[in-house]
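Progress report, Aim 2. The chain analyzed during this reporting quarter is listed below.
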Amino acid sequence: MSFRAGEELDAGTLGPYLAGHLPGAEGLPEIWQFGGGNANLTYLLRYPAGVEYVLRRPPHGPVAPTSHDMAREHRVLSVLYQAFPPAPRAYLYCDDPSVIGSPFFIMERRRGVVVRGFVPPEFGGGGDPVANRKLSEVLIDTLVEFQAVDPRRVGLETLGKPDGFLARQVRGWTERWERARTEDVAAATELAAWLADRLPASPAPTLIHNDWRLDNMAVAFDDPARCVAVYDWDMCTLGDPLADLGTLLSQWIEEGEDQPPVSPMPSREPGFMTRAEAARRYAERSGRDVSRLPWYYVFGMFKIAVIVQQIYVRYHRGQTQDARFGPMGEIAERLMVLAWRHAAALG
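Predicted structure tokens for the chain:
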């Protein structure tokens, strides 16, 4: 078993609780913590019979209201797989803190390649422009496929309140920043006001993921163009579909740009689409107008800066010992300043 300090799970407590609730969940599972991810904690459970499941729980310590919502993620994943095959199926939700100390849910394990900061060797290690192009295209094509799901088909038509979505989002993310900030950042104040004053008119609402990016996706071992899983659904809701595209493109760093990579994509590799190419592909495949996309791009950067600050403040307060989070306060400030520069250039 392998865990980060302070993030252990006790198989002796968890095993008896899950026994009888899940097929093959008999005896005590071996437990490993997945190393990726910066917020919610994810673990692999392997039972003596060879059956495997994945457990998801929030991070330790206080969390921002409405974030790290395991009940929401379970609700979505318990039905979404029926209409959107890349969504792993969720089987069980537990809100009893006596079991592991927080709410959690259990879902199926999906096997595939998660691409983070670099293209792995099986896809050419960055030197294959065709494979790189496929990785960028699958991001857009899978997003369009997901947003085409009719929420009524899977019983998710009441998941959110689309009316006034963007205004609530800007207000909510601004409040999150205020709760998590450790330093005064003038750019954050200016940016929040700019976003609130320039809200675009939203297209027809769809289901949205709210954290769509490459390292929340797994592709097939033998085909970078085939998505086999999409993860991290705790912020899924009904809202403006362009918010997902803006979040994605705000992490789509191009050659020559000095943007701090938080969840880096290998978007500078030869063959990887540019942001403009990705926006055009999305527009063509979804039929949506992307003329106001610069606003969504800035909003995406703002959200990422807030998320990074929320991660950092837990480290700052000693609620996690994960040394990866030490530099994130500085990164959040740099992202805010960069986002404000983009906003100011738009006028």
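The longest helix spans residues 293-316. DSSP finds ten helices and nine strands in the chain. These observations will guide the mutagenesis work planned for the next reporting period.
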